[in-house]
């Protein structure tokens, strides 16, 4: 079989740009090599006019098997933070910058590997259309891969997490770490508290927020 390479998802976009049409088209995407080993495309999920949109990196093992975003261990951390911040998960839109699971087989396990810049770029058309159609008031960026896709390679989540960053009109981004970083942290309690504080900043945004607001202490 010929090598696909990272030719990009543009050619797989449907003529009618709606979320259901995008989901159906993405299930057939071969815009990069990741589709070969993944079980399925994991497209975004949630209400189409959500006020909050959360963008992560890529599906994990459980997401790949179930075809839904954020249903694995990191998703459980996110669920807890959303609940404690007062955001109803059933009223948000969840997606990832990359729609296929990238992994390294290790015995019976599949170990997550981060996507390359080329893979992020290849998948960008799906995310761009999701952003356009949902048009959320608040986009919570979860981790460096999502930040790169939405804010460019120069953005540093570790330095700018918790900031309220203008998107367009009155819409904003709020970047934070990926919830999987909480699970990897040596001090999980502190890592979770910091993560929750960022989510609470997003939850507290109403109408026209103060731009570049940042919590004074962690």
Short key terms for the protein model shown above:
Uracil-DNA Glycosylase, subunit E, two-stranded antiparallel sheet, globular, disordered C terminus
Describe the fold and architecture.
- The protein is an alpha/beta fold and 218 residues long.
- The protein has one domain: 3-Layer(aba) Sandwich (Uracil-DNA Glycosylase, subunit E).
- Helix content is 36%, strand content 15%.
- The protein is built from 8 helices and 8 strands, in the order αββααβββαβααββαα.
- A 6-stranded mixed β-sheet has the order 1-3-2-6-8-7, sandwiched between helices. Strands 4-5 form a two-stranded antiparallel ribbon.
- Strand 7 and strand 8 (172-176) form a beta hairpin.
- The longest helix has 18 residues, at 117-134.
- The chain is globular and about 40 Å long.
- The N and C termini lie far apart (52 Å).
- Residues 208-218 have low confidence and may be disordered.
State the gist of this model.
This protein has 218 residues and is of the alpha/beta class.
Topology overview:
Blueprint: H1 19-26, E1 45-46, E2 52-56, H2 61-66, H3 73-85, E3 92-96, E4 103-106, E5 109-112, H4 117-134, E6 138-142, H5 144-151, H6 157-160, E7 165-166, E8 172-176, H7 179-184, H8 188-203
Helix pairs in contact: 3-8
Instruction: Tell me the CATH superfamily.
Output: Uracil-DNA glycosylase-like domain
Beta-strand share of residues: 5-15%
Helix content, binned percent: 25-40%
In this structure, how is the largest beta sheet organized?
6 strands, mixed
Radius of gyration: 17 Å
Q: Structural class per helix/strand content? A: alpha/beta
CATH class: Alpha Beta
Count of domains: 1
CATH fold topology? Uracil-DNA Glycosylase, subunit E
Tally of helical runs? 8
Dominant shape? globular
Q: Segments where pLDDT lies below 50 for 5+ residues?
A: 208-218
Mean pLDDT: 92
CATH architecture: 3-Layer(aba) Sandwich
Strands side by side in the biggest sheet: 1-3-2-6-8-7
Our measurement of the CA-to-CA distance between the termini, rounded to an integer number of angstroms, reads 52 Å
Q: How many strands appear in the DSSP assignment?
A: 8
